[in-house]
Predict the structure.
Amino acid sequence: MQRIANLLVKKDDKVLLLKKPRRGWYVAPGGKIESGESIFEAASREFREETGTTAMKPHLKGVYTMVIRRGEEVVNEWMLFTFVAENLEGIPYKETREGVLEWHPIEDLKHLPMAEGDRTNLLFAVEQSGTQYGTFTYTEEFQLLEEKIQISCEGDGWNA
């Protein structure tokens, strides 16, 4: 199973997003976790490689299973670890081979083109406390079929 780590920086009520060229969808900068690398190391490295900056004090906000189905058959599955940071050091690239980097008001996460699971996890990362866990099931065309979410908050236990 493939493992992916991404990192969303929130600064001055804005978030730094990467617009991917293939679909024109927005994502948090991130990518594959390399062999022997921790999820924290991967999120920090991928963010640095894709933005040219360093995220300040990132912390884990979500752990997700992403499933792609063709009918009843699972055709792909991966884990996503989402981190958030409140600031960054440096000036982000404007464009990389991965896409175009843009600052957007947090409110834009509610309507920018993106996978619906990404919308759920990125909004949680910047608007709520605790850690979110979930499973998102999609068609091969990335139509969301099902979303299962659990949230844990320090001192608060679990919310399903």
Remarks:
- The longest strand covers residues 73-85.
- The mean pLDDT is 94.
- The domain at 2-159 is CATH 3.90.79.10 (Nucleoside Triphosphate Pyrophosphohydrolase).
